[in-house]
Amino acid sequence: MTINPSSTPKLSGIAMKILAGYKKWHTLSRHVPKIHRYSLGVKIDDCFAGLVELVAMAQFSDVELRRKYLTAAIAKNDCLKFMLYTLYEIEGIDEKSFVALSSDIEEVGKMLYGWKNKIETTIKS
């Protein structure tokens, strides 16, 4: 099956970064020990899904709601970082994988804060 490039959705920079992080997680999650994969691994998957949802809601909402969604997305991203760190600490993933994945998540956080700050300065002026 070939995908027509004109029919694929155009994603924002932040959505592309989240997608890149999720792709790494999806590949990595197969190697997480079962005892962690079906507990913390599922929670991490849920955090990624929630983050995608909040960013999509922010992209397509008015400015006031956008601030609310971005605040929630920042909190979700911070929760995701903490869960990944916890998984690393209990030896569910190796250091190399943790560093590679957490750098994407950290970049998403910076982008979210930048987006939120831009909206707040726009509202003030």
Descriptive overview:
The chain is mainly α and about 120 residues long. The chain is about 80% helix and about 0% strand. It has 5 helices and no strands. The chain has helices at about 15-30, 35, 40-60, 65-90, 95-125. Helix 3 packs antiparallel against helix 4 (about 65-90) and helix 4 (about 65-90) runs antiparallel to helix 5. The longest helix is centred in the last third of the chain and has 30 residues, at about 95-125. The radius of gyration is 16 Å and the shape is elongated. It starts with 12 loop residues before the first helix and ends with a helix.
Brief overview:
This protein is mainly α and 125 residues long.
**Radius of gyration from CA coordinates:** 16 Å
Overall, the morphology is: elongated
Amount of helix: over 70%
Structural class by sheet pairing and helices:
mainly alpha
Which consecutive residue ranges, at least 5 long each, have pLDDT under 50?
Answer: none
Number of strands: 0
User: How many H/I helices?
Assistant: 5
User: N-to-C terminal Cα separation, in Å?
Assistant: 50 Å
Mean pLDDT: 91
**β-sheet strand percentage:** under 5%
Strand/helix succession: HHHHH
In this structure, how is the largest beta sheet organized?
Answer: none
